Amino acid sequence: MHSCRHAFEAVLAASFAVMLGLPAAAQVTRPVPNIPRAGTTAPAAGRTANIVRANRIEESKQRTPDYNVNTDEQRAKVRDWARITVSYDTAPDWIDELEVRFYVGVKGKNTGAVMFQATVTFVDVPRGSHAEAVFLSPGALERYGSVEAMAAEFFVKGEKVAVVAHPAVSASAAPWWAVGSLKTIEGRLLNRAQTPFAFVAIDGHNEIKQK
Question: What pTM, to 2 d.p., does this model score?
Answer without folding.
Answer: 0.74
